[in-house]
């Protein structure tokens, strides 16, 4: 389980109220901008603006990641440090996640699909770093810890 920010993590969202929230987390590392929990809103919005308004991006595909793979536990630690709240991450078996999502009102088929979608993460197959931010923006991607610190300082996770 991970207690996380609402909406798309990295966006200007309010931290959930008390109590854990469950997502299909695992010990597997993920690229820091291409998956939930580690999505960085600013690089994506900057990338969108640049690719839509500047020349040289037609037909390009930019796979986004941060500067290094990040586990959900790493993300929880960074969010805890930035917000001053205790945010924890515990691996949840896929069947338990499906059961919890169904208990929350998800259709069983959707719950299974959501849990299964992160199989690659659970197996550590999505821990690569890509060059998309560097190629598109001409600068390296921002570290997740730096992102969480600046987002918290800007009040994005205040209650």
Characterise the protein shown here.
By secondary structure, the chain is mainly α. The chain has a domain at 41-148: NAD(P)-binding Rossmann-like Domain (Rossmann fold, 3-Layer(aba) Sandwich). The chain is built from seven helices and no strands. The chain has helices at residues 41-53, 72-83, 94-103, 108-116, 119-122, 132-137, 144-153. The protein is globular and about 50 Å long. Mean pLDDT is 76; it is low at 1-18 and 32-41.
Secondary structure: elements and pairs:
Layout (H helix, E strand, L loop, with lengths): L40 H13 L18 H12 L10 H10 L4 H9 L2 H4 L9 H6 L6 H10 L6
Helix pairs in contact: 2-7, 3-4
Helices, by number, come to: 7
Q: What is the rounded distance between the termini?
A: 21 Å
Question: Biggest β-sheet: count, sense, barrel?
Answer: none
Determine the strand fraction and express it as a percent band. under 5%
- CATH-scheme architecture of the domain at 41-148: 3-Layer(aba) Sandwich
Radius of gyration: 16 Å
Shape: globular
CATH topology of the domain at 41-148: Rossmann fold
What would you call the structural class? Answer: mainly alpha
């Amino acid at each position: 389980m991970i207690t996380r920010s609402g909406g798309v993590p990295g966006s200007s969202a309010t931290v959930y109220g008390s109590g854990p929230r469950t997502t299909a987390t695992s010990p597997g590392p993920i690229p820091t901008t291409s998956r939930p929990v580690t999505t960085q809103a600013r690089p994506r919005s900057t990338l969108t603006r640049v690719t839509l308004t500047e020349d040289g991006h037609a037909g390009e595909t930019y796979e986004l990641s941060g500067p290094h793979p990040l586990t959900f536990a790493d993300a929880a630690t960074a969010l805890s440090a930035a917000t001053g709240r205790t945010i924890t991450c515990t691996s949840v078996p896929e069947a338990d996640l499906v059961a919890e999502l169904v208990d929350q009102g998800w259709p069983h088929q959707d719950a299974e699909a959501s849990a299964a979608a992160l199989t690659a993460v659970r197996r550590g197959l999505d821990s690569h770093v890509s060059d998309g931010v560097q190629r598109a923006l001409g600068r390296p991607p921002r570290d997740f810890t730096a992102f969480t610190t600046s987002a918290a300082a800007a009040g994005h996770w205040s209650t």
